[in-house]
Design a protein that fits this description.
- By secondary structure, this protein is α/β, with parallel strands linked by helices.
- Helices cover 36% and strands 25% of the residues.
- The protein has helices spanning 42-51, 53-64, 104-121, 140-153, 168-177; strands at residues 3-9, 12-18, 26-33, 76-80, 86-93, 125-128, 160-165.
- Helix 3 (104-121) packs across helix 4 and helix 4 crosses helix 5.
- The longest helix has 18 residues, at 104-121.
- It starts with a strand and ends with a helix.
- It binds ligand AR6.
Length: 178
């Protein structure tokens, strides 16, 4: 896959890659989930398919416990990564894009909260998809800008941060943003 080293500051390396996030080997893989945590299409469907039933079982457990009403938009929570080559999946819920209302703070929160959870777990590496840039309709340029700006501005011990982009349009937007 195409790769470009985008940023290297204070021990944090931010890498932009093209590919399928389920093929990444990283401590944590981030899922662009929905509030139900019970799966869906896009990257969510791919992660559940590749990771196997252990991820869904852990999500169902969260729904029976702490997240009985679902995971709120902008928050993040970790589960097992099942069969994926990762230790954890960090599920986050991006906002649905709106042209009328600025929901950028919620999208930024997804990246910040995912890194906070990763720090709690002691993850050294994390792979992010382009949260909200698919089914949720966020324009690629803006999604990329918010993603790159937010991780760079977040204090974290996660040294290896990757954005794994599935299509050329989103990949190009992230490369420009970086
Ligand atoms: N690896 C990396 N990126 C991927 C992959 C993959 N295997 N598959 C898709 N993408 P989306 P959202 C890209 O729709 O917009 C689900 O149904 C995709 O091309 O997965 O946050 C959830 O359950 C796009 O650039 O997530 C929610 O209901 C990016 O991942 C809803 O979709 C995000 O697209 C969430 O929508």
């Amino acid at each position: 896959p195409a790769e470009s080293r985008a940023c290297l500051n204070a021990g944090m390396a931010v890498t932009i890659l093209k590919g399928d996030i389920t093929h990444q080997s990283a401590d944590a893989i981030v899922n662009a989930a929905n509030s139900s945590l019970l799966g869906g299409g896009g990257v969510d469907g791919a992660i559940h398919r590749a990771g196997g039933g252990a991820i869904l079982a852990a999500c169902q457990e969260l729904r029976r416990g702490r997240y009985g009403r679902g995971l709120p938009t902008g928050q993040a929570v970790a589960t097992t990564a099942g069969r994926l080559d990762a230790r954890w999946v960090i599920h986050t819920v991006g906002p649905v894009y709106s042209a009328e209302e600025d929901r950028s703070a919620l999208l930024a929160s997804c990246y910040r909260e995912s890194l906070r959870v990763a720090d709690e777990l002691g993850a050294a590496s994390i792979a992010f998809p382009a949260v909200s840039a698919g089914v949720y309709g966020w324009p690629a340029e803006s999604a990329a800008d918010i993603a790159v700006r937010t991780v760079r501005a977040t204090a974290t011990a996660v040294g290896d941060i990757r954005f794994v982009l599935f299509n050329d349009e989103v990949l190009a937007a992230f490369e420009r943003a970086a």
